[in-house]
Structure formats: C-alpha cells, structure tokens
Amino acid sequence: xxxxxxxxxxxxxxxxxxxxxxxxxxxxxxxxxxxxxxxxxxxxxxxxxxxxxxxxxxxxxxxxxxxxxxxxxxxxxxxxxxxxxxxxxxxxxxxxxxxxxxxxxx
Length: 106
Fold this sequence. Notes:
Elements: H1 3-13, H2 19-105
C-alpha cells in the first residue's frame, strides 16, 4: 500500500499507533522522496545538457549559415558559367567550321 494512504488510514481509524509502524512508513516515504529527487536531478541535468547542445547548434547555424549561403551561390554561379562556356564552345566550333568552309571555297 502507498505509505501516504497507509498513514491516512491510520489517522482515520486508529487512536494510537506504534512508533515502529510509523518508523516503517517514514522510511518508505523517505525512500520515495529520495527516488523522486534523483529523477528530478537527472531530468534537470538532461535538460541542461539539451539546452547546451541547442545553444551550440544555434550558434553554429548562425555562424555557418552565411557561409553555406555563399557556398550555394558560388555553386550556382559556377553552374551558370559552365553552361555559358558550353554554349561558347559550341558557337566557337560553328564559327571555326564556317571559316574552314570559306577557306575551302577560295
């Protein structure tokens, strides 16, 4: 039985109680209290650790987010330049072909 319920039952139903019975109930309540304090401290430590990791992640996001954006822009620019170079190579090949045809005709 839950020690608090047992204590309430003793208070409600008995006029006297032995100290050994109260001592037993007290020890069980004390153990429950210690266990709850351990859980609370564990949760507090977990929460503090989680907050540290979140703050680090936010700092990283802020610090490296701008670099990531610059990198993505550089990649986009590179792809655009490669596309333009490809078109220029095709145009150069066509112009060289025309020039060869004109030389053959002369």
